[in-house]
Structures are given as C-alpha cells and as structure tokens.
Write a structure and sequence with these properties.
heterodimer, A: 186 residues, Rna Polymerase Sigma Factor, Chain: A, 2 domains, 10 helices, elongated, B: 223 residues, Alpha-Beta Plaits, 3 domains, 13% strand
C-alpha cells in the first residue's frame, strides 16, 4: 500500500489518527464542497455538509472495506446528506423554475451576444440542468467517475447511469438550442 | 440516439454512443475504449458528437472550478466535532509484521529516505566489522586441535600404536582431559593433560596410567 494513499489514511483514521484525518480532508474537501454546492446551491449548507461528511468518515473509517475508491465513498456520503437537506427544504421545484427561466431568456439581447460565446452559453445551460442531470454530468465530467463508480454514488444500476447521462446531454443540447446555440446534435 | 453505419463487435451502436462521455474522460476499461476508438474512426457523426462532449467536459470543469473553495470554518467545525467524539483507543495490531508495516506506512517519504540512508551506512559499517574480524582471523592462521592451550598443567610426549583408530585416540584424550598441543614429530605427539600443575608422584602415576592404555606405545612427561 502506498505510504499516504487514501486507503492507508482511512486505516489510520480508524485508529484515531487526527493527522491522517487532516491530510484526507485537505486532499478532498474542495471537491466534496463543490459537489455539495452543486447539489444544494447553498454555500453555507455545502460548508456544513463538508464537516458532516468528514465526521462520518471519522466515525465509519473502521467499516470502510475498500470496495470502492475513497473519493467515491466520500461523494456517496455527500450525496446522501445533500439529498436529505434538499428533502427537508423541498427544493426540487426551484430547479424547474430555474431551468424555465433560462429557457425564457432565449430572445433576450444579452443571449444573442452569448450565442457568440458558446462556452458561456454551455456553462449557463449546465447550471440550469435539473439536479439529477447536473449530478451525473458533474460526476462523469468533473469528478471523472466511471460508470461503475457513478452507479455506486447515485445508488442506481449502471445502465441507468448511461441512460441518465445520455438524457442529461440531450437536455443540455435542448437548452442550448433554445438559447440560440445549434450544435447539430441530437 | 443516432444510428451508426457500422456496428462494432458485439456492441450496439447506441451502446458505443452511450460510452462516449466516459471515453472522453479516460474512465473506460481498455476493451470498451478500443471499441469506441474503432467506432470513432469509422463514423464521422460519432466523431463530431465526441468533439461536442469534449466541449461539455471543458465547460463543466470551468463551472465547478469557479465555485471556489470553502472557508476554514468547515475544518474548524470538523475538528471541534471530532474533539467531541468519544475517545478512541488506538488499536494496536497483535501481528508484528502488521505493526512494522503500519509503522513504515506512517513514515513520510522524507523520513523513509533518511531511514534508507542510515540503513545503507549501517550495512557498510557492518561489512567493515566483518571484514576486520575475518582479516584478524586470517592473520592468526589456521588452528587445529593441536594448538597451544593453557601453559599450566602437565604435558607429555605420547606415541600411539600404528593401528590405533582416530576414534580410539579421541576417546583416550577425552578420558584424560587431554588435548594435542604439538606434533606429530618423530611419531610422537605433545599433549596437555589437565589444567593444573601436578606433583611428581601424580605425574608418575599418570604416566603409568597412560602407558597401560592399549593404544599407547610411548608416554613420557615433558615441558
């Protein structure tokens, strides 16, 4: 085992090693925060979630079996906690409103300018995706998770991951088209 | 999903298309990656879509990176929460090898480097000590059971019967607490008998005893 691999850090944390906890935190907390923030869209909630996620790691390290990467485990915990927060806030409707708002601006003069900046339009549309689609896009594109790892994090079958990713991309293309960016797919 | 003009292996065109995002991030297994590569080479539509996916990846990374980082408050909260947890006794493995492995794992790369250097020096020192010991032994020369022993005690010149066996001579020496310290010279061995000085009577009695042994042909006290 590599001296300071994530797995060895978890083993040390299981023995109560605070330094190992700090090293693991330093290594992963930004990605955990960003994943939580993308899910909850609330900075203070996302920050609170980081503490909760790593506290869970402190408590559960002894039970970690290494069947998935530590980063996958962390994101799975983050997702579970973020969804709990969202359920309490009943925030789901807000995302649809946000998406609708983006779609409605297609004739706005500012959007016409954005057509010249496909990258900017893409970023806006990515941000406007539904939580489910945003999540799978982030896991695959940003967190570089394989089909299997994404399935583990989202607790869904691998084929569902592929299907969800496909429809997320299709929805993204639809949003871009409404924003005036035609990419030729689908 | 778009239809591809050519199927690839056992996979449906839709399956290949569905794998493009993972191919672009390099998280496919080698077998699937090869299939996707082959499909990309054959199908321009698929290749075009692959280029779009690469744009999506770049902008998704941009979106996430622009989210910034959390404040130090999160870390402080975590440490405070850990302080509030029940104290956890540090578990020690009963397996010695596991303990050594744990110890090595706990070392930083710099510490390991220093340890390796110290180990190398220790090996060199050890090699030097061994070399010195060997050299000293070599200087002393090869020694047999006939080497000079303690100078105290009684010595004698002893001759053995020509047909005496080595086992008999060894038994004789053991029986008299004796050892060969010289010879053979003119068919006689110089032997040390005991480790204390003896009176003349004792020496005479001992010589008489030696001569009585059937394997001894000659026995005479000497210095």
């Amino acid at each position: 085992m590599q001296a300071n691999s994530d797995e060895s850090l978890i083993a040390r944390i299981a023995q109560g090693d605070r330094l190992a906890m700090k090293v693991l935190y330093g290594r992963h907390h930004v990605r955990v925060y960003r994943f939580a923030l993308r899910l909850t869209r609330d900075e203070s909630v996302a920050e609170d979630l980081i503490s909760e996620v790593f506290l869970d790691v402190w408590r559960q390290a002894g039970k970690f079996e290494g069947r998935s990467a530590v980063s996958t485990w962390l994101l799975a915990i983050t997702r579970f906690k973020a969804l709990s927060v969202l359920r309490r806030r009943k925030d789901a409707e807000l995302d649809d409103e946000t998406a609708a708002a983006i779609e409605d601006t297609s004739d706005d003069p500012e959007v016409v300018l954005e057509k010249q900046d496909t990258g900017n339009a893409l970023r806006q549309c990515i941000a406007a995706l539904s939580p489910e689609h945003r999540e799978v896009i982030d896991l695959v594109y940003y967190h570089e998770k394989s089909v299997e790892e994404a399935a583990t994090i989202m607790n869904i079958p691998e084929n569902t991951v592929k299907t969800r990713m496909f429809y997320a991309r299709k929805k993204l293309a639809g949003l871009l088209k409404k924003a005036g960016v035609e990419r030729g797919w689908p | 999903m778009i239809a591809m003009t050519l199927g690839v292996g056992a996979m449906e065109p839709e399956e290949i298309e569905g794998l493009l995002p993972w191919h672009a991030t390099g998280t496919l297994n080698p077998r699937d990656a090869r299939r996707v590569d082959e499909a990309l080479a054959r199908d321009p539509q698929l290749a075009k879509q692959y280029a779009l996916i690469q744009d999506e990846i770049a902008e998704t990374i941009h979106v996430n990176e622009s989210l910034g980082a959390p404040s130090s408050r999160a870390m402080q909260r975590l440490l405070a929460a850990i302080d509030g947890e029940p104290s956890r006794a540090v578990r020690r493995s009963s397996n010695v090898i596991a303990q050594i492995a744990d110890f090595i794992v706990s070392l930083s790369p710099r510490t390991l480097a220093y340890s390796a250097a110290i180990g190398a020096i220790a090996l060199l020192l050890q090699a030097g000590v061994i070399a010195a010991v060997v050299t000293t032994k070599t200087t002393a020369g090869y020694q047999t059971a006939s080497s000079d022993g303690p100078s105290v005690g009684t010595r004698a010149l002893v001759g053995f019967q020509p047909d005496s066996k080595l086992a008999d001579i060894s038994q004789f020496l053991d029986a008299h607490n004796a050892s060969i310290v010289g010879g053979p010279k003119a068919g006689l061995f110089r032997i040390q008998l005991g480790e204390r000085a003896m009176s003349k009577d004792e020496v005479d009695a001992l010589m008489k005893e030696l001569r009585a042994d059937k394997i001894v042909s000659f026995a005479q006290p000497t210095q």
